[in-house]
Design a protein that fits this description.
The protein has about 425 residues and is an alpha+beta fold. The chain contains eight helices and 24 strands. Helix 3 packs across helix 4.
Length: about 425
């Protein structure tokens, strides 16, 4: 009986493994750019949309402070506990490693104890504002996939702005405002992300949710990426086809989650009160122990690998593309205009490969080795792909409904493939989140 049960389980696992090999991107990973398949014409390449795995992007950033001498410790300085202005036995000294608080401690790996953190100088020059800009730069376009999380050791600031740049810091736009009093600080009514909708997801809001002063258990500030994804993918991010469809068709939405730089503008430290205590200015400062920024290199769905070499990130481009973001076709592969890959149809997407220029291949438009017709098309005399119903393009790489602007998330064979896999998963009782 046990042998029979084992053999049944083994057979079931082989079936599931086979399905997962055929549909590697069903969970939304898009972690394969191409695979070899067997057709009536022999072994050919099947190209798919692909992207690098999401990771902690703070491993690759450069940090800049403005003013540059705002870090405490030069000269050495004594600062007070936030909740008790008379407890002033803490020292910051840049020349002593145990007492120094340099900027890199915002990104170091640490356990719960001891806590390491960057710290600013105290508010000695009141009423001059104590303001700091912290700029995080990647020299690469990246796509955010999870919440930005900032952990303060000093108490969360009374006023702060999170900003983004899409052009390497030449121009900036606000991501979100934070304040204990939004109306007083920024002339904005307070809101939270839960007040937004699909139609207002790009609205820049001011929130009072993360600006409680001295509470020792309230150290974290969020910029909520996942809550915005949830407007399209559902609260558990299971309907990824809907999110991918929106990202494919709405450039402003995709740009909203895309950055080259982030800037944290600290405008007023935590005071816990309306008026600043001018007699105890050493209790006012900024201190940040951790910043998390999760995302992936933007490779326009043409690469799964992003390498960090000579302090610079760059995509290892596939699909005959090139450039830091795989944003153009390689030389001699400009037979049609460059296009980013597409997430749809699920699960493999559309690669939109660059094809050889006519001048470089003569009349050879397709073959059975490198330029195979996609989506079930057949190559006719090396000069034309004969496409099945529903597909068009030089290599049958596009859905016909795209040209008519009538594609839905279940268009094409990819949706049918996902449906088969979902049915199998349901029969097996398997559950799990879709990961962006």
């Amino acid at each position: 009986m046990y042998l029979s049960r084992f053999l049944s389980i083994h057979a079931l696992w082989v079936t599931v493994s086979s399905v997962m090999q055929h549909y590697p991107s069903v969970w939304g990973h898009y972690d394969v750019c191409k695979t070899q398949i067997y057709t009536e014409e022999g072994k050919v390449w099947d190209y798919m949309a692909c992207q690098p795995e999401a990771t902690d992007m703070t491993k690759y950033l450069k940090v800049k402070l403005d003013p540059p001498d705002i870090t405490c410790g030069d000269p050495p300085e004594t600062f007070c506990a936030m909740g008790n202005p008379y407890m002033c036995n803490n020292e910051c000294d840049a020349s002593t490693p145990e007492l120094a608080h340099p900027p890199e401690l915002m990104f170091d790996f640490e356990g719960r104890h001891p806590s390491t953190f960057w710290q600013s100088a105290t508010w000695k020059e009141y009423p001059k504002p104590l303001q700091v800009n912290i700029t995080l730069s990647w020299s690469k376009t990246i796509e955010l996939t999870d919440n930005i999380v900032i952990t303060f050791e000093s108490g969360r600031p009374d006023q702060m702005i999170l900003e983004k740049s899409l052009d390497y810091g030449r121009t900036w736009q606000p991501y979100q405002y934070y304040a204990t009093d939004c109306l007083d600080a920024f002339h904005m009514d307070p809101k939270s992300v839960k007040d937004l909708s699909q139609h207002t997801i790009l609205e820049i809001i001011c929130t009072e949710e993360y600006s409680t002063g001295y509470m020792t258990n309230s150290k974290i500030i969020h910029f909520e990426i996942k809550d915005r994804f949830a407007f399209f993918a559902g609260p558990r991010l299971r309907n990824m086809a809907s999110l991918y469809g929106q990202l494919d068709t709405t450039k402003k939405l995709k740009d909203f989650f895309t950055i080259t730089d982030l800037r944290i503008r600290l405008l007023r430290p935590a005071t816990g009160e309306i008026f600043v205590d001018e007699q105890h200015l050493a209790r006012y400062f900024y201190a940040i122990s951790d910043i998390k920024v999760y995302g992936r290199c933007k490779c326009n769905l043409h690469a799964t690998v992003c390498v960090f070499d000579n302090n610079k990130l760059s995509c290892e481009c596939e699909h005959n593309t090139t450039g830091p973001d795989c944003g153009k076709c390689k030389k001699n592969y400009q037979g049609r205009p460059w296009s980013p890959g597409s997430y749809l149809p699920i699960p493999k997407g559309t690669a939109n490969t660059c094809i050889p220029s006519i001048s470089s291949i003569g009349t050879n438009v397709c073959d059975n080795e490198f330029l195979h017709c996609q989506n079930g098309g057949t190559c006719h005399n090396n000069v034309k792909c004969q496409c099945p119903a529903g597909y068009t393009g030089i290599l049958c790489e596009k859905l016909r409904c795209e040209e008519a602007g009538s594609c839905s998330s279940d268009s094409g064979h990819g949706a049918r493939a996902q449906g088969s896999f979902t049915l199998l998963v349901a029969l097996l009782g398997m559950t799990g989140p879709c990961l962006f």
